[in-house]
Design brief:
The complex is a heterodimer of chains A (786) and B (214). Chain A is mainly beta. Chain A contains 5 helices and 40 strands. Chain A has a 22-stranded antiparallel barrel. In chain A, strand 5 and strand 6 form a beta hairpin. Chain A is globular, with a radius of gyration of 27 Å. The two termini of chain A are 18 Å apart. Chain B is mainly beta. Chain B folds into 2 domains: 31 residues; 170 residues, no CATH class. Chain B has 3 helices and 10 strands, in the order H-H-E-E-E-E-E-H-E-E-E-E-E. In chain B, strand 4 and strand 5 form a beta hairpin. The N and C termini of chain B lie far apart (92 Å). Classes of the chains: A mainly beta (786), B mainly beta (214). Chains A and B meet through helix 4, strand 25, strand 30 and strand 33 of A and helix 3 and strand 10 of B.
């Protein structure tokens, strides 16, 4: 949803709804000044509180209030250039001619799906409603995130088209986009790529769900801006922009989940009241959250040891001036999460026993015992934007992340030991310099260089992956042309990756000392065409590649929970993907429709292939070796919103994924089942105390997943299921002058027993049953735009 | 002048170089930390049966040269446990990690320290591939060989429950001549061992020794 420049059309871009004779009379009364006022709203017409409206010629800024309104009561009667800006949206620059009197500007901002904002491009005030977005993109606005915020970040986004989650109980949800996950999916934490052992099946993104202000999922391949290895897509977790005007605000959010008796709360303070000499106005934010949950409950029993807790902190400080800005952030994510005790199995016989006689606890407990994971993720990031002449911009980002993961297990005999079964410490430095060059006519573009230095230490008892050092660098360029009804883009990126894996210090050498490097080109070409009013078709052809990770090359050991003995293969080489996708969109006042189809051919697709039993003194394990094959993933996503009147709307979305091994013709493992979501919402209007109360009835229909690869006895197919949800809430409730946002939702309203194909505990137990979720948001003071 | 000459001393160079190395390598994972590796990796399981009242011990062991973490299978048992009719044997089972001959780890110490989380099972069986609700093969009563539960040593729970690092094998006087199999399993409970007959555990050992009665 990016507005594209239409070129240097002279004296353009004013949406004039002149106040008429009265206004010009009023202007004359004011003498040689005129009034410039208007509203700023998003593409759906909702007011954008906090948008900054700047009269560039006079360097005067006004921030839009909660009705979306702004006004400059007395400006010189002359043509002026007005810039409207809000982080997360494509900025707009418009001209307003005040020579003849007052002018009204009603501006719509479209969400910026790709960071290609061109600051000073003269544009028309019509938003394009996302018709010019090349890739299939889903954006959860701040309001969407608040309403759907789940127990984890992954759960928050799982209903988006094309998105699924691999779950180990409610505490651990790994996003899957178009059937691909882990290192085939790039998760961006703001501007910093999240690096946290994401190769692991049971390693979920270490990001606080409360720190996510907006979430954007871009499906496809070949994103030059985000690296070469995002074969499935990119998930961008966007934090809230810092306030830049003198306010103090606070926000308290509480989420309660009945299923696992969870309480979660976030407290945030922010302000921009401090003005430093030479520096400018300092915006700051302090936000912390805590979460505590006990055992999850299926319709018949509790899942023992599935409780978890989190303590998170996020501190931000920044300065934003007309010439640019800098922001520094420190964040900490820390969690202890229990792994379902009944899934913790070793040998084949243990696994069969656990499947035939699963552990079903009649009692609830908040206890988190072994086996469990303790993960902490510290992030320091620095971001500077500099506005250069002629609307060019330079961005410099730096991030340091420390990911500390300890897994406490029952393997071996010394489970009482306080030393973790394995521990991994990942240190990652990333840096990027990006230049958005000055627009040349309809051509806008970006060039950049990025680098990464990463080190992995394994201080735990047993071997899982070797210690290693990685250096990676990339250089890229992306250009886009916007014409009247067409846009074209082309991007190219070159990456180089060097890895030194250290020998594992054990008499029985599992992993040798090894230095290796990989390099390759990635990129994409694409375009959009508005072939009729309110219709567009978009397409991209993208190429990406991914170097194999250390787990795929050096694994040697039992993966508990699946009783798999996993062996890496050092001969594994990189995966290469070629992706074609097309999206047709239709936007009308009363309806929106988006249909995407894609085909992703992945050569050298890395997966686990059974090779026979591995016999040890503990018993027999089914042996799996990391292997390569040529695969293909195809799919279809349909998303539509029908809202013929203000008081009701229907949202329908469907996702289909078909993954296939091209060499054997068998289905790929881990492809999500077909899914259809239908939500019917009734919304009231604005009353004296209550604004936009709503009732939403929803249902999720999931088809059975019987497309499972053969020779994997334990990948049992799952039956289809239907779940119903009910939600009642209010956008704003005035309680003695204090506004609140409140909702109560019952998910899996009928307490249906079901097993989702991507839930790893499905071999043993059902997924959780009914969950009643209460969400409350209380803003204090004037907080920055949500 | 005197101060400058300090810089030329080897000790200074070493100190500076060492300091620089320390700084450079402070987050450099060049050397794996000492003691890395899994000390609970079982590479040798030995069963020793000593007749009560004296006599030569009957010993058999299974060696897995690369331990439980690497895929090469364990070797076959070194010997058949040859038992005499009418004799009762005191048995011990020993678990070792002797992959590094300079650093042999006696795993029994750990098992006994954590006796409240472990239980050994000894089953004379005709078919070790069978498994009941807790994974034990079907007991073959026709061989006349029993390992009475009361003969197992106990843990530190109250009331004490069987552990089984020591046990007794009782061979009936009328036991038929022939061969059978002794299946030995070690069940490891995360919590709540109770009597050790629960269904939620990790199998830490599952080996079979050939037994012959003469």
């Amino acid at each position: 949803m990016v507005t594209r420049p239409r070129g240097w059309v002279a004296a353009l871009a004013v949406l004039i709804a002149t106040v008429g004779a009265a206004a010009s009379l009023a202007a004359q009364e004011r003498g040689a000044t005129a009034r410039l006022e208007g509203t700023v709203s998003d593409s759906a017409g909702r007011p954008l509180l906090g948008a900054e409206v700047t009269v560039l010629d006079l360097r005067r800024v006004i921030v839009v209030d909660h009705t979306g309104h702004f006004a400059f009561p007395a400006l010189p009667r002359a043509p002026v250039t007005v810039q409207v800006r809000l982080l997360g949206y494509a900025p707009r620059v418009l001209r307003a001619d005040l020579t003849r009197g007052d002018v009204r500007l009603d501006v719509r901002l479209a969400g910026a799906a790709i960071q290609l904002d061109s600051i000073a491009v003269i544009d028309s005030a019509d938003g394009d409603d996302g018709l010019r977005t090349e890739r299939a993109t889903s954006v959860m606005s701040a309001e969407d995130v608040r309403r759907n915020r789940g127990q984890t970040l992954g759960e928050t986004m799982k209903a988006l088209p094309g998105v699924a989650v691999i779950q180990f109980g409610p505490s651990l949800a790994k996003p899957v986009v178009r059937g691909l996950h882990s290192q085939r999916l790039r998760v961006m934490n703001g501007d910093i790529p999240q690096e946290g052992q994401q190769w692991g099946e049971e390693h979920a993104p270490e990001i606080d769900a409360f720190a996510a202000n907006e979430i954007e999922v871009i499906r496809g391949t070949g994103f030059v801006l985000y690296g070469s290895d995002a074969i499935g897509g990119v998930v961008r977790v966007l934090p809230r922009p810092l306030p830049s005007t003198g306010r103090f605000g606070a926000e308290v959010i509480t989420n309660l989940f009945s299923n696992n008796r969870q309480g979660a709360a976030s407290l945030m303070f922010e302000g921009a009241g401090l003005k430093l000499p030479l520096v400018g106005r300092l915006g700051w934010r302090v936000q912390g959250s805590v979460r505590r949950a006990g055992d999850a409950k299926t319709p018949g029993y509790y899942l023992r040891n599935t409780g978890f807790e989190e303590k998170n902190l996020n501190l931000s400080l920044g300065v934003q001036r007309s010439g640019g800005g800098t922001q520094v952030t420190y964040s900490r994510f820390a969690t202890t999460l229990g792994m379902y005790l009944g899934a913790h199995v070793a040998t084949v016989t243990d696994l069969e026993r656990a499947m035939n006689d699963p552990l079903q606890s009649p009692d609830f407990s908040y206890g988190i015992n072994r086996p469990n994971q303790q993960v902490s993720h510290d992030l320091v990031s620095w971001r500077t934007n500099l506005l250069l002449g002629r609307a060019a911009r330079l961005d410099v980002n730096y991030g340091f992340q420390l990911n500390n993961r300890k897994e406490f297990d029952g393997i071996g005999f010394a489970s009482g030991s306080t030393r973790p079964a394995f521990g991994l410490e990942l240190h990652t430095h990333t840096a990027e310099v990006r230049l958005h060059h000055a627009p040349l006519g309809p051509l806008t573009g970006t060039f950049g260089v990025s680098g990464m230095r990463q080190g992995n230490l394994s201080p735990g008892r047993s071997f899982l992956i070797p210690q290693y050092r990685i250096y990676a660098a990339g250089v890229y360029g992306l250009e886009q042309v916007t014409l009247d009804r067409w846009t074209f883009s082309a991007g190219l990126r070159y990456d180089y990756r060097w890895q030194h894996a250290y020998q594992f210090g054990d008499p029985v050498v599992i992993s040798p000392d090894e230095r290796r490097s990989w390099d390759g080109l990635s990129g994409s070409v694409g375009g959009t065409f508005q072939f009729a009013r309110g219709w567009s078709i978009a397409g991209t052809l993208g190429r990406a590649w991914r170097a194999p990770n250390v787990s795929e090359r050096f694994s040697a050991g039992v993966h508990h929970g699946t009783a798999q003995y996993q062996l890496g293969d050092t001969a594994i080489s990189m995966e290469r993907s070629l992706n074609v996708d097309a999206t047709v969109r239709h936007v009308r006042r009363a309806a929106r429709l988006e249909v995407s189809a894609y085909q992703n051919r992945i050569d050298g697709y890395i997966y686990l292939q059974p090779f026979g039993d591995v016999s040890t003194v503990r018993g027999a394990y089914p042996g799996y070796r990391f292997s390569q094959t040529n695969a293909q993933v195809r799919g279809l996503e349909v998303s539509s919103l029908i809202s013929p009147s203000a008081w009701w709307s229907l949202h329908l979305s469907g996702t289909l994924v078909r993954g296939r091994d091209r060499n054997t013709g068998d289905p790929l493992f881990d492809m999500p089942a077909d899914r259809l979501i239908a939500n019917l919402r009734f919304t009231g209007g604005a009353g004296r105390r209550v604004t936009a109360p709503y009732v939403e009835l929803g249902s999720t229909l999931v088809r059975k997943q019987d497309r499972t690869p053969p020779n994997t006895v334990y990948r049992l197919p799952t039956a289809g299921y239907v779940l119903f949800n009910l939600e009642i809430g209010v956008a704003s409730l005035d309680l003695f002058g204090q506004p609140l946002e409140l909702s109560i939702a019952a998910r899996n309203l009928l307490n249906t027993a079901y097993r989702d194909y991507l839930t790893r505990y499905r071999l043993f137990v059902d997924d959780p049953g009914r969950d009643v979720v209460a969400r409350l948001t209380v803003p204090f003071g004037r907080t920055s735009p949500p | 002048m005197i101060r400058l000459s300090v810089l030329r001393r080897p000790a200074t160079a070493l100190a500076l170089g060492g300091g620089l190395l320390a700084v450079v390598s402070c987050d450099d994972p060049a050397t794996p930390p000492p003691g890395a590796g899994d000390p609970e990796n079982v590479s040798r399981v030995t069963v020793t049966l000593t007749p009560v009242g004296g006599g030569a011990a009957v010993v058999s062991f299974i060696v897995d040269p690369d331990g439980t973490t690497l895929p090469d299978p364990p070797a076959a048992p070194s010997a058949t446990l040859t038992l005499a009719k009418g004799v009762t044997y005191n048995g011990t089972i020993t678990l070792l990690n002797d992959i590094d001959p300079n650093n042999v780890v006696d795993i029994n110490d750990e098992v006994e320290e954590e006796g409240d989380f472990h239980r050994f099972f000894f089953t004379i069986t005709a078919d070790p591939t069978t498994a009941d609700a807790i994974g034990l093969p079907t007991f073959d009563a026709s061989r006349g060989i029993t390992i009475p539960i009361a003969s197992l040593n106990t843990d530190n729970q109250s009331p004490a429950q069987p552990l089984g690092t020591t046990f007794q094998v009782v061979v009936d006087g009328a036991a038929p001549t022939g061969t059978t199999t002794l299946n030995i399993q070690l069940h490891h409970f995360e919590s709540d061992k109770g009597d050790g007959l629960g269904t939620v555990f990790d199998t830490d050992l599952n080996v079979n020794f050939p037994v012959a009665v003469q």
